[in-house]
Amino acid sequence: MVSNVFPGHSFYHAGRYVSKKPGAELLDYVGVRGYDYKLMAEDFITQSELRPSKQKACFHAALSFYPGEKPTDETMTQIAREYLEGLGIVNTQYVIVKHTDKAHLHLHILANMVDNDGKAIKDGWIGLRGKKVAQQLTRKYKLIPAKGKNLDLTHLEAMSQSEVNRYKIYQAIVDSLPNCRSLQDLELRLMAQGIHTLYKYKGQTQELQGISFRIGQDRFKGSQIDRKFSLGNLQKALAAMRQNRDITAWLSPKERKKALLIKSATRQSTAPEPTHQVQLSPLIQALLKPVESEGGGVPYELTDAYRRKKKKKKGPSL
């Protein structure tokens, strides 16, 4: 099961999307008139006005199940409730809607980040926290877990430009890293693809403290692209390449086991490469290769591109 949190949506826009989608089925609602999205939005907005300083009062998330996985409505409703509880979104209005318009079954959850007492609900790092809660619920309900990124299965056209750029950087690092020996090598290869590498230094010293990547107007820390692309992990991988040693030391136990199996198979099936070639390149490429994921990306109707298109169609008002 995969969690996706969509920031910056209005109650009206999100309510219309989750309710009017063909095949949408309302599973549960508390504190709002869930049978009509306009009335639902009014109820959400009325409560959010108890805390005017809470600018982003609309919480909107989707929980996506693996293709072919079909838990009962009761199970999905319970999972959604526990998901909200795990995020600390309690004592507030919410709506749970099932969508069946894609190959994978998924839920949309709307909630008010201003609770019934007029207090603001904390939303710091809520996207990351949502993924962690989803992982816990996946184990608890014995669901099929997410296995990683798969750019071939990612609908880039359904993402915001910022999300598209983040995936472009991810793919560029994956493609470039096996041929690099230093951060400078990686920097040059990325620059050729229009991606700039930025370093953070400790105080006034030359000691590196962090790494970021910029494409266009978007800038991401290495760890925001992928945990393996933090400064420390990139340095470990590059050091292993320079010393022609096993890079598995910086991997998790599960990843290390996979790497050793790949390394063993590579030794048995390939002849020695010339000395100027990277001998462990096949191993790193296998480790960095995206694997299958059930995620379906952000629905196109929820993107800025879709909203801009709708505005253009309306034309100037008279």
Report on the structure:
With 318 residues, this protein is α+β, with helices and mostly antiparallel strands. It folds into two domains: 2-146 and 295-310, 2-Layer Sandwich (BirA Bifunctional Protein, domain 2); 161-270 and 279-286, no CATH class. The protein is built from eleven helices and eight strands. The chain has helices at 11-20, 37-48, 73-86, 126-140, 161-176, 183-191, 222-225, 231-242, 253-269, 281-288, 304-314, and strands at residues 2-5, 25-30, 58-64, 94-99, 106-112, 196-201, 208-215, 218-221. It has a five-stranded antiparallel sheet with strand order 1-3-5-4-2, with helices on both faces. It has a three-stranded antiparallel sheet with strand order 6-7-8. A hairpin with a 6-residue loop joins β4 (94-99) and β5. The termini are far apart. The model is unreliable at 246-251, 266-283 and 289-296 (pLDDT under 50).
Summary?
By secondary structure, this protein is α+β, with helices and mostly antiparallel strands.
Q: What's the CATH topology name of the largest domain?
A: BirA Bifunctional Protein, domain 2
Structural class: alpha+beta
Counted up, domains total: 2
Specify the biggest β-sheet. 5 strands, antiparallel
Q: Termini separation (Å)?
A: 48 Å
CATH architectural arrangement of the largest domain: 2-Layer Sandwich
Number of helical runs?
11
Uncertain stretches: 246-251, 266-283, 289-296
The first-level CATH class name of the largest domain? Alpha Beta
Helical content (DSSP H or I, runs of 4+): 40-55%
Radius of gyration (CA) equals 23 Å
Secondary-structure element pattern, one letter each: EHEHEHEEHHHEEEHHHHH
